[in-house]
């Protein structure tokens, strides 16, 4: 499975980008300029991952030329990284080199998925549920965004498994189960928030804000040492707390069973509170 994960990641990334382009054309043709503008705006946060990719290229001693900068400007920088991983794997490159390249692109893809794919998923899901239930193109775009986001989480988990002693790669059945779990978890959270937004409009931000504060304080109580500086540590907890509105990401070594139970308990309380309100 050395080249399977990056190949699937690149395929899903291409499918998601194609569906997003179709959604943009769909709104443009139908004259829905408001949804068109919001869909295009969802692309902007993705440049954070592109900028970080350029900085990592420079840190690795590869001065980015005009061609590489143009690819990142077109948001194709991660495509280039996946292509480099596939070429290194097919050329029989060293396991350490391939693993390092795979780790970089998995982290960058996860960041891009959380900053760009997730907002696009929420927007298109809201359009399908509240505005145009018969909208085929927004529905397909939302579905592919959900699958791509779930796969970004799975590929990140796959990379963390490869970092363990022995570099054990999970079997295909395990990866499939992880994909189904992540897809179901994300799908239900997105659907719950979209339905709540349809019924109660802007009150959804109050519910999401309460969840975000609870998760951020909980992360701070765990004293995670991923970030050393106090200011950056607080910012990291706040950002990860926002991610925890939708999914759980293990950021600490060791067993995570207790933390997962706490996460699902807070998520269940949030759903019950939203229903009661």
UniProtKB/TrEMBL annotation:
Ranges that cross the membrane: 33-57, 125-153, 173-195, 202-221, 233-251
The keyword Repressor is annotated on this UniProt entry: no
GO cellular component, one term: plasma membrane
Membrane protein topology class: Multi-pass membrane protein
Keywords from the UniProt entry: Cell membrane, Membrane, Transmembrane, Transmembrane helix
Keyword Cell membrane included in the entry's annotation: yes
Compartment annotation: Cell membrane; Membrane
PANTHER family: XK-RELATED PROTEIN (PTHR16024), XK-RELATED PROTEIN 5 (PTHR16024:SF15)
Family listed: Belongs to the XK family.
Name the record gives this protein: XK-related protein
Gene: Xkr5
